[in-house]
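Q: I'm a student working through a structural biology exercise. My instructor gave each of us a protein and asked us to get a predicted structure, then write a short paragraph describing it. Mine is DNA repair protein RecN. I'm not confident about reading structure output yet, so if you can add a plain explanation after the tokens, that would really help. Here is the sequence I was given:
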Amino acid sequence: MILELKISNLVLIENVHLDLDKGFVVFTGETGAGKSLLIKAVKLLLGEKGGANYIRPGAKEGEIEAIVWGGEKLSQKLQEAGYSPQEEIHIRRIFSPNRQKVYINGSPVTLTELSKLTKDLILLTSQHEFYTLLSSEKQLEFLDHFLELTPYLKEYQELYYKYKSLVSQIKELEEKITSSQLKKDFLLFQIREIEELKPDP
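A: Happy to help. First, here is the predicted structure for DNA repair protein RecN. I'll explain a few features afterward.
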């Protein structure tokens, strides 16, 4: 849950500060008022890719920051990632023409790390969200959940990753064996060539 959101110099937004920790919040407005831009800002805050094209014209850099509450789930994710466990985090993302910076609680992180830490903390939906029900991946997810197969799925995934890793190692070893055999054959060929020449010592 987002408790506080600040947006500076993002596309058409010059400066917005939203306090969202009290009650139910609704954004309304005419087409073009900037509702979708607020959603885009949240997506960027959660790790969606974006660059200098989001900087407001005339500004040197754009910035989005927020305080996000995630409860015990967030605390556990932070601990697993090597951070101090806590139920709230401060996220800050800065866009500039040459590079962008991402911080969590003041420490620099990558977009990948940001995405992993914020995954499932905030749910974004739209009027077309029902189309996800047509996804075979989503249907399998619902089926696994309904049949209470999620724990077995995780176990299967772990075993599958181990299997893929072993297959990769075997392939690498086979390639090394083939390479060694080729070198051996080449050296034997050279030895035969030398022996046929019978060079004087």
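A: Here are two points you could use in your paragraph. The chain has two domains: 2-124, 127-201. Helices lie at 35-45, 71-80, 111-118, 136-146, 150-197. It's a good idea to check both against the output above yourself.
Q: Great, thank you!
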